[in-house]
Amino acid sequence: MLLFSAFACTEASAQARVLGDILDRMDKHYNALKSLKADVARAQENSQLGVVDIYEGKLALLPGKGRNFSVRLDWSKPKVEVLSVVKGQYVLFVPGIKRAYTGSSDSKKVSDTGGNVLSTMSMSKAELKANYDVQFLGQVKLPGDVDVWHLKLNPKTRAKYKFAELWVDVNGMPLQGKVTAINNDTDTFRLTNLQKNVSLNGKIFTIALPSKTEIIKS
């Protein structure tokens, strides 16, 4: 029994060291990242129906602390939509019906468009530790033979979802994020073809709405 307890303590200590190293790498990467462009693949799974909806698009991101960040998502498949979030406010434009939704980035409309996953993938070490109990689940591979660390994020306070997960590369960059809802539906984002610290014109985060666009505030 004593030997088992000693082994458990040693294993727990090793796990804590590994997790600490991962979070440190993530924080170093977070502080060095000034901008990001990437391809995005999104999979939304309805657990009751067993149906998975797949989306493809482009991401542009200017990191910032808390809500003070700018992100733009240009979805191209299965339909064209443009989401922009700047300093806690969002605009979601649907060109096909000339309609735009606007409001707080905390709204359900943004979470339905992937806001929960993206905000989790964009957090600093301090924000992660403040909002979640973080677990190290092991080292795995993403498609393309990419080695990553798998983390589980359990919310410290009541949230609109059960938990989140991150898959982080050796540089500390989250390449994949996933949120599991209360009803077990999942929302997964995968970033590929990353371009870090490239020049981004801040104007791209302001969506120029065509005339006669119907605007709905939420």
What are the defining features of this structure?
outer membrane lipoprotein receptor (LolB), chain A, 4 helices, disordered N terminus, 218 residues, twelve-stranded mixed β-sheet
Please tell me about this protein's structure.
The protein has 218 residues and is of the alpha+beta class. The protein has a single domain, classed as Lipoprotein localisation LolA/LolB/LppX (outer membrane lipoprotein receptor (LolB), chain A). It contains four helices and twelve strands; from the N terminus they run αββββββαααββββββ. The protein has helices at residues 2-32, 108-112, 115-121, 125-131; strands at 36-46, 51-62, 70-77, 81-86, 89-94, 99-104, 132-142, 146-155, 161-168, 174-181, 186-196, 214-217. The chain has a twelve-stranded mixed sheet with strand order 7-8-9-10-11-1-2-3-4-5-6-12. The N and C termini lie far apart (58 Å). The relative contact order is 0.20. The model is unreliable at 1-9 (pLDDT under 50).
Distance between the termini: 58 Å
Overall average residue pLDDT: 86
CATH homology-level superfamily: Lipoprotein localisation LolA/LolB/LppX
Helix proportion: 10-25%
Name the helix and strand elements from N-terminus to C-terminus, one letter apiece.
HEEEEEEHHHEEEEEE
Compact summary:
By secondary structure, this protein is of the alpha+beta class.
